[in-house]
Amino acid sequence: MAISHHLIFGQYVDKKSIIHQLDPRTKLLIVMALMIAALFLTSLASYVMLALMVAAAIAASRLPASYIIRGLKPVWLIVIATSVFHLFLTQGGEALIRLGPLSIYELGVFKAITITVRIVLMLAMATLLTLTTKLSDLTSAIEALLSPLRRIGVPVQEIAMMITFTIRFIPILMQETDKIMKAQRARGVDFSSGHIFRRLLSFIPVIVPVLMLAFQKAESASQAIEARGYRPGMKRTQLRTLAFQAIDYKALLLSGLLLIMLIALRM
Amino acid sequence: MEITLKDVFFSYNAGTPLENEVLRGLNMTLESNKITAVVGRTGSGKSTFVQHLNGLLYPTRGSIKVGDAWIMNNSKKKTVLFDKVGIVFQMPEHQLFEDTVIKDVSFGPKQLGWRNELIRSKALEALRLVGLDESFADRSPFELSGGEKRRAAIAGVLVMEPSVLILDEPTAGLDPAGKQSLMELLLSWREEQQRTLVIVTHDMDLLAEYAEDVIVFESGKVNVRTDPLTLFTKYRDRIEALGLKLPMALTLVEHLNARLRSPMVINSVKREAILAQVADHFLVASGKGGS
After folding, report:
1. Are the Cβ atoms of A208 and B160 closer than 8 angstroms?
2. In chain A, which residues have their Cβ closer than 8 Å to the Cβ of B56?
3. ipTM (interface pTM)
4. CATH number of B3-243: 2.170.150.40, 3.40.50.10490, 3.40.50.300, 1.10.1040.10?
5. C-alpha span between A47 and A121 (Å, rounded)
């Protein structure tokens, strides 16, 4: 069973849709604004509205919703754990159920539900962003949006380069991990049974070779970019420059309006 | 050990937009005691196919019978038959992880729960088989040369004494001498117990020299299954279309035949045999005799 099979987050799926066509800066800005907004939602109406917006974006992306839901799979445990904590530890409102020392209050139920909705919505937005945006575009967008910081001496280009390399190497290292896991399974390692300590130990035959490979690949990648003239701190030009289209202004305007409505709704 | 496949289908990422059907209805029997070469262009499904033979992958549909064990989609526990069918992957040297060679070779047997004394003697035997003497046992695998690393990694699979050994591009990245000595050690391994070898390869010279049975994959199906001589004679016109090419010695014969009045008819695809036949042909033609 491949790891990459479970991790939907971070994979680009090529489709022709409005969402795919948007400038990466537009998408990044909107997602960041809505994520921050999601943290401050209070009223029920505002939650419903944000959920509708995310649903509309998913529909416009032409990706099956089931795919986004699968992308949420790895974090279900975190979501459940957080909501259980909120359920039992928040006090306020009427006590609904008393179980000895534990009791569940109205406010606790409300908090548990809202925190779940919040995490799910935020993850859905992030997943949608990475599913519809090429990695190279995303890093150009990060670089473009961070570029004002260059004036105060932040090495924006180097940061963008590091992000690109980090994200670029995730699938490569996952592939290598898959390969080595297969090779070790073929030598009798069973990654899926036994108690937790045993399972952790069974990963040593994978971690050691993957680390060795990661060092080798980092070494050869840095030699390759240096051989092609990369020097930290030098001005670089880009093959593809980002340019806003009419659709981007429309999308930004629309999201701006919706954001104002969200703020109005939370009052 | 005989392996039988019935209607085997397999898709990666089944049920997602990235679903990719790789195997499309395989029916075949791999007989014992044969060297089978699996060939086809990149992405034709050959690597996926061999990973089904020991249960690293389970088919989406259909069944595989390995000796008396079954590999099917609805099998309750999807176990890997690692003691019956050994796989040596491309660049097996990447799987080394222990601090000494002997520990790494002993890794599989340990998983099988063998006794410690038995593990040590079998590990040393496996190392000897791949041409690494006892002085290698306590060295770190990371300080060996590329070829030695590969031998050590192969020993780590052979040590479990599988009855079927699958090799995915075993000679990739080796020089001609390294290739030949690796193949010789595999042949001697096989002689001992009449075991089955399955070799996935792009190397037509390797195929011509060693294979007894050839399975040509195309788009997840078996396009041709035959012996090397028939493949390169009867199916000559399909070779390029299948993403294959002629072995070097056969290319020589074809080039010569294009200029000869009476073309040579080959009856073996092994390099030595072809060269002898070519030599004979010219000796006879020049009136100097020959056999």
Report:
1. no
2. 182, 185-186
3. 0.85
4. 3.40.50.300
5. 9
